[in-house]
Batch of 4 targets.
Target 1
Amino acid sequence: MGNNVDVLEVFKARKSLESQREFLNVQHSLGIIDADGVRNELELISKKEQAIRDRLVLNSHVTADGLPRSIAHHEPTPNNPKDYYSTKMPDGKKIKAVTYDGLMEKLFAYYTTGIRDYSIESVFNAALHEKEVTENPKANTLAKNRVDFKHYISKELASKDIRNVNDLILKQYTQEWVNREHPKQKAFFSYKGILNLIFDYAYAHKIIPTNPVEMIKNKPYMKSCDTRKAKPEDKILSPEEIDIIKDEIRYRMTKKKWGSYYINGYAALFAIETGVRVGELCALKWEDILATSIHIHAQQLSVKENGQKVYYYDTCTKNEKGISQDGREFPLTRKIKNLLLEIKDKQDALGIDSEFIFCNEDGDWIKKDAYETFLRRLCQSKGFHVTNNHALRMSLNSNVLLPMGISVADRAAMLGHSIQTNLQFYSFAKKDYLENVRDLLDSQDDSNEGTLREPLKIIPFSKKESPEALISQCF
């Protein structure tokens, strides 16, 4: 028998051609391609399938010495009017077929028995491929599906033959998972989405007779999900935590392990001061630094090409949704200007020539994945619960801009989102608001009069601004 890896590769190639055939039929039913076009393409696919099949059979159907086993053609005779093809199998039995093509199909079935991979992981990959070629999904959607599969589906479950997985197995797995992880409802629905993707595909392609996921109701598992709303302290970093990040980055710049040109560290320092998104941070160019402001109008995105992640420069920010409106501007403060001058001096000293501000020593722009990994590990090393760049955006809004009395309209414009988004998702009381409020109240305590004196400075600590305040700020 031929090499198992070769057999699997041949089988996968045949499955790919089957998917192409199904896709052609869909195109025909939608009127995208005419009958003649379908017929020609189907003939081509059939020829490819036959060539793949014959290659596997001829490589596998050999004697112990590696010689090809003979295939006999029995033509009709007066004593035996039957016309057929036959060959002897490795176990000594003979198999027959009316046509040569029919015999090759029987041999193919024989040599692939037990080889076909019906594991949940393989079905997931097939389902994802079909989704990619038929549903025009975004690259990020496919990437999220892959991440979700690895996160929610254990290796043990992924290796199971999907034909042997019933609703009881899935229910037990689901119950153990929710009781162990207590996921957020959003995570639970992502998990269900992966199950639906896998088992819907298997059912549609007649791999399984029924879909066991349909038997899994959400209500029993919601009891074990974490339904609590995230508290502000779960979303933002305190001013003290921000200072810890700054100090750690500056400390690392003094160590040989990281070096003084610690570009991901510089990127984090810049993000702390500006609240830029990760993609915007990576795409920022020196030409975007104006006399009094920073022009934020592009982002770094990525797509999958031939199984590899490829990064590209997109001329829109996230909130512009593919239609450039020339981005937004953020004020160029003295602190930000000095930070940029420091980066430029380091690049000049190292002979780095790049249009991008945040670039590696070879001049290539930093990548989102690398920066996010750096920031997550740094925050985790300090024991922080929030470890993402988004927390820096929200912390700037809640810890700096909001207490300064900057209007919600201006805050939204600086961060690049709507007023409603800023109010609903970005404007929280500072993490240490209780201590600050107590100090303010204590400072007004007049021990002689027993009354409050005029406050020296009032800082608003409301979690959400009132509609009246919002309206007044818009005029």
Note: Residues 402-473 form one domain.
Target 2
Amino acid sequence: MSQQPNQPFQTGQQIPSILVPALEFIQDEANFYVKMNLSSYVLMPGNVISLYRGFLFKVEAPEVDLISRKENCQMTDISFDELLKIKLSRNPDIVLVSNFPCLYHPHFTLPTLSRWSSMILPPLQIQKIRWVDYEETNLSGTSGVSLGFYLLKVAKSLIYQEGYIKENTSKIANNEALEWYLQDKREHPEHYPTDRINLPSHKFKPGSSISYQTNFDSQDVDEQSNRSTQSAQLSRKIKFTIQEQKPAYTPILREKTDLKINRRLDSDFRIGHNSSMQQEFYLTKEAFQTIASHISWGKYSTSNQVEQGGILLGTVYKNPETNIIYGMAEQAVNGSLARGSAAYLEVTHETWREMLNQVDRIYPNLQIIGWYHTHPNSLDVFMSGTDQTTQRRLFSQDWQFAIVLNPHRTIWRAFYGRNSTECKGYVLSE
């Protein structure tokens, strides 16, 4: 059952099913990205080969001029159908964004610099990890291969789908990874593909139905298996149901008094078609310090190079004179068990249970009024399509908020309601 639209997310209830796209396509005024929420192998410190989930790639090609260049243009998702219409004249450049993780794959290059000793450097100073196609296809003078199908090829190779790893070719980006793959495939053929993904076939036609969602399973399996000591496990996710909860929470009627604000920490509010002045969001000093400590605000650390998140606790008020709703997050509980990557955050059932247990035990008088998560490294702070789905499913009321923070760029933005409308955000000085 899905959550009723007029019901809040409350402690003690189970988490609804949220379908996560295996592929998401994001454009902004200057760049085009593809987000692959699937698992592949990476090289961890100590030369340990592990499964890792969630990668963000930038696509560079002459044909990738997808939107008009407007001021204050925000990132938006685009459809697969649109990508099928874009014909390529040459192979595009597929570049892994951010400085973690280090893909260990026959068709992805390794950086020259050590990615582990270079984490203190800005991401642009680290050599990029690029996709190397196994076919240098001459696309000019023909009908052309679409950008959509080309990106499917990359995704199918990343999950080691049959036929998308060329074993006998001179065009190999990482010979060591190829040798490891060939040996491992002989000894453990059950490892491949490494993720259960329904990706469109090359027979897909525009206008027909398309499904590129990750499959859900009934049990939770650790995604990061140490390949030097044990067999790799398949990456899986969990499906949950939710029960209707009553009564619904409503904001408290109260006139807003003067609040002392730390102006250096105002949100990066951007006026646009999806922003509003009818809601305001406030973090108490204590709540902000809790979040800042969790995500290492203003610093580079091993843990904050991947997405992190948690829930926001507090009270929501409504000014009876102006009808402006303002949320006050008094505390935050971090999802210490959440699994993050540079482009993806998975909040498992165990993570929710651990956070909700803390709420019941420590903050029984506070309401869950929203959630927070990070976009690390060079990413902007915005609500992606997946983020908006989470907001719609779990925090759809006008008094429920979401904040997105980038700890490295020290910027954040606040959003509310089922449409992820942006509002102004503030941090109290006391």
Note: Residues 1-18, 68-72, 113-126, 204-246 have pLDDT under 50 and may be disordered.
Target 3
Amino acid sequence: MSETTKQTNGPLSGLTVVDVGMLFAGPLVGTLLADLGATVIKVEHPKGDEVRRVGRFRDGEPLWWRVTARNKQLAAVDIRTEAGREVLLRLIDKADILVENFRPGRMAEWGFHYEELAKMNPGLIMLHISGYGQTGPYRERPGMGTLAEAFSGFAHTMGPKDAPPSLPMFPIADGVAAITGAYAVLAALYARSRDGRGDEIDLSLYEPMLSLMGAMVIDYDQLKYIASRHGNRSNWSVPRNSYLTKDNRWVAVSSAANSVAKRLFRAIGRADLADDPGLATNPQRVKRIEECDGAIADWVAQRTQEEVLAVFREAEVVAGPICDVEQIFADPHVHERGTLAKMQDPVLGEVRIQDVVPKFSRNRAQMRWLGRTNVGEDTATVLSQLGYSDEEIEALASSGAVHVSVEAAVSGGTV
């Protein structure tokens, strides 16, 4: 059995997912479901998925692709061709879940209306992901994670007070939408277990981000309060900030509970602040935020990160290091929990990436393989399982409707 087809006993073992998504939310839904044991067939363009051409490369090998395409079987099919559409229809006929994130209406233009697909496969769950959703005046607008982070109000609240709105370095909106999409299809699967019927799900990129924004909406609705940037401070919980240490590292502190704030003040030798009745509650401390933050910042600046955290742990202050990725790699807790998985890549050798989350005691989710180098690594195998003969596969490849990886065949892969 090849590496790309070995079985799993993960909690979603037995489910089949067809992933025709692109950068990044759609494919990440497939990744999450594959991590949990589903058989995920990634349908990429015969010229290769776009993720193969973004991010950083080692010796020409795309690293981000290794992450997003992990645990997936790869079938290179041009679904804009008649023969390619027939391949996708056969895949959908046998699938539990179909994930796509083209512009609204594009799949229907290619002949993949959910109403028609559901006649063929009544239990099919189809997840649409787009920038602004399948309805509304903005539905036709191009939507990427960056625009969702901006439109949702997230960027407006991120960054220092007197600095421009801050966008994250990584596509957070895509990741949040992917997690939302994954739980949405699992909810649809549960509903299907009751009546055998699938569902069509409409998920925008901006709405999951907006849903994470706490009380921002109700605060404006009831008080006309517009959330804005406060750096690492909070406008409802004080002290809450990042503080620079003597050795040029950073410590994060959170004191949402009043008892924690008192312990923090005592830990830095400021019993006067801990016992001040005018600082007993968060609303009171917000009014004197400069005084509170200044006392902590001055104390932290005179000590190393290790010294600061040792004092805070002893005092049961809610604090921790702000880690860069090098520190994450070296951290003993990360090692003990197996937060990073060690995988063997046939080209790159040993690779470490984030392991599957969460951890299951009985039906273990696991990393089985990384995103494969060859475009259409499993095209021939997938087509064969759909009933195509060797001659038909060769004809499809010759027409350009599919791409069959010659490299996989030569290297003893699944072809």
Note: The longest helix spans residues 172-195.
Target 4
Amino acid sequence: MDLLILLCSLLISYLIFKIWKFIDSKRDQECYILDYECYKPSDDLMVSTHLSGEIIRRNKNLGLNEFKFLLKAIVSSGIGEQTYAPRLVLQGREENPTVRDGIEEMEEFYTDSVGKLLRRNGVSPREVDVLVVNVSMLASVPSLSSRIINHYKMREDVKVFNLTGMGCSASLISIEIVKNIFKSYMNMTALVVTSECLSPNWYSGNNRSMILANCLFRLGGCAILLTNNRSLSTRAMFRLKCMVRTHHGSRDDSYNCCVQREDEHGRVGIHLDKSLPKVATRAFVENLRVITPKILPVTELLKFMLRLMAKRISRNPRKGSSATNLAPKIGIDYKRGIDHFCIHTGGKAVIDGIGYSLDLSEYDLKPARMTLHRFGNTSASSLWYVLAYMEAKKRLKRGERVFMISFGAGFKCNSCVWEIVRDLGLDDDGDGNVWKHCIDDYPPKSISNPFLEKYGWIQNEDDPETFKFPDDQPHD
């Protein structure tokens, strides 16, 4: 009898041990953000209104109609006059970029942001177990990831991933790579480095489908420190709840809507096709269909199902709205499962369209609008500038959820949800948030449009030979 009791006790102990090990292993599959650092370029790279017009003016391939098109695009872009451009553009060398220009642009970014991030968190570069780098439009030899490893003297066995050509949604792809690695290894520290290289990709031709990118894209980048070490969970800022990636690359119109190519004169640029809004809408709706059941309560899911059934009967979006819509209104309340919305700053129309589709308030859209105004479209890193704005405004409270959504060439729509682990706000040491130097000025009582004030007159010009600026003052 005693032997039977002993055997039962051992069996129960074994089962408890196995259950504990199973739970313990699952806990180590969590993905936490310990900290992140957005890049603030030096003030000498800031683009003023006068400089914007001057950059357009010195492109000798543009006619009057192209001048008007670009100036109109700038005026309506939602971008302010404190964004940053590559050094070679400010120096007037954009038509003759070199490989070194692109590498130096990236070096300025990662030596600043990665260095600050590691120092602030007391993490040695040799403690980094995983490095994921995504920069879409620069493929150097050695790779950018190798350059970062060499600069910071990381370990020989660091797991390295170098992503190119992934577009504006690449940072979430990088996060998913880290998340999948965390499923197989315990107590890991990962570093994600996300940016875009503009220096070798400035378009100097006159193809309208390719010159628009020059108006929106600006310098930026972000370094993100992640871990699955549960002993560090109390230090973490965010915990990943779920992620959904939608890729429509098998569809020809989706594949061809955003392509790097040469124009008829051999000048390289990014072609944005007229089908882009339709393609983005399709990817956006498909992504929402998958992630919505993961983030909303049952009552809202029922409304979602009814909405889908109604859409099958009538596929036309609701008429009568003056908004530029990315997609028709979904018709459910996403605020029942989400507290904050982190929207890719692809442009004013993108922000307006997502706001309309998800029925968001101006309060919800303000972080994206202010990020577009202050920093422009910084490609894959733009989501993190929006998140930093929310943090600087002390919006982010423990237990709340942040919904990130971004778009990219391919065509892709990626989204994820983060749970806030602790109350977040500006730190006291003057470091750590890219908005700290100017957050008190945002949002301004009214956003003036310096581009309209300075260049609105071009609409009355008839002769490209008489194109002049309102003053002869050189830019700062």
Note: The domain at 241-424 is CATH 3.40.47.10 (Peroxisomal Thiolase; Chain A, domain 1).
